Structures are given as structure tokens and as C-alpha cells.
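Q: C-alpha cells for this one, please.
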Amino acid sequence: MKRVMLTVAYDGTNYHGWQLQPNVITIESVLNENLSALLKDDIRVIGASRTDTGVHALGNIAVFDTHARMPAEKFSYALNQRLPEDIRIQSSKEVPLNFHPRKQDSRKTYEYKIQNSDFPMPVLRLYAHFTYVPLDIGLMRRAAAYLKGTHDFKSFCSIHSAAETTVRTIFDADVEKVGDMITIRVTGSGFLYNMVRIIAGTLMEVGRGNLLPEDITGILEACDRAKAGPTAPACGLTLAKYEFTNLSLLRLEDA
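A: Here is the predicted structure, written as C-alpha cells:
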């Protein structure tokens, strides 16, 4: 038996998120179906980040166990011949059997993109949120700085979340603009349900002048979802990077 880790990129437009759900197509269900067909066995992947409906990823992580003799590095090639064109395995490698992607120290980077111009660009409609209202990038950047550190992010969490704790650590948060495209980039140890989309919605409220940058402190302290801004649409959100801080220290023979 070996455990294989997949780095999975996908356009989430046509999927009901990552997580397996009845009667709908998800990224997880497509991976399970194609791996099971490839290996002639009932394969169930374990995902690292359960992205929502319409959210994209450049490198989400999944692991699965198999007795197959195929080298772990070859699974990416074999799977990509079967998967739909909006899902692609970027790499595959063997990891210890006790490696669990949601139980390892990690750093996750999300990017939220906003097209800020007079008119929407059709080719961006699935990958960026559009607003014609001018946004002040300087104010948004100042507001984002207040998110850094370890805080209770209950105000930035969906009321439907079942998380045991709403305390999270944000290592970096910044806002940049290139041309008409604004990118909100947030790196943290973990994120709550809808957390980055609520952060994006709140920073846009700052950019419009409806909130002050320093209001972020009060929103965090309130621990009240009603105090933060709206939840930004899913299309602008991409899981850009997933890094395991101690993966290089794990050895296969320790499993």
C-alpha cells in the first residue's frame, strides 16, 4: 500500500465545489470516478481544501491510497488522459501513509480578483468579480494590514460554518492593482467557510469609502458576521498556492 499526493488545478465554474455531495458533480467526485476506473478499485481521495461552488484552484491537494504498482509520479500523466479539460493534475508523488493534508502545518494563499473598470470584459467574467464603482487601492491595502496576525475571525465567517474554533492566523494580506485588475492576496494557516470572500467584500466596502481601514479592528473584535461586508461572488476566488511547512521532513519509512 502507498499513499499518493496529487496537486490539482481546476476551473470551478461547472462544479458544485470540491466536496462530495449527492446528486451533483464536484471536483472530488470526478477524481474518485476517474481514479476508480483507472485502478479498477474503489478509490476515495482526501482533499486539503474544500473550495466552494465556482471557486478555482491552481494547486489544491488530494491524497489517496492504492496497491497499484504504478510509480506515484506517473499518476499525473495517466489521470490527465481521462479527466475533463477543466481539471488537470499538476504533479503526483508518494507521501507517508500517515500523511493527512488537513492535519499538517501548512500555508494557503488565496487570491481574489476584481475587474474595476467602466465595462466588464467578457473573457474575465468567470474568473474575476466586476465592479464599475472606483475602488481606492491605498485604503484597501491599509485595511488588509489589520488582518495580519492571529485573530478571532468570527465576523469573517459564514453563519453556516461548523468550525470548532474561529481563531485563525493570517501571515500576509495585501492588495495590488495592475491595469484594471485588482488582486487581493491572503496567506494564512487556515480559512473559515467563506472567509476570504467576506474579506474581499469588506475590503471593497473600504475601497468604496463606506468603511475606514481602521474599522477592521472593530469588526474583528465584534465577532459578529453582520459587522463585516458582504460575501463577494465565488468567481473571483482562486486557491493559488498550498504549501506544507514540514513535508520535506517526513520520510516514507516513518509511516
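A few notes: DSSP finds five helices and ten strands in the chain. Helices lie at 27-39, 75-80, 137-145, 195-208, 215-222.
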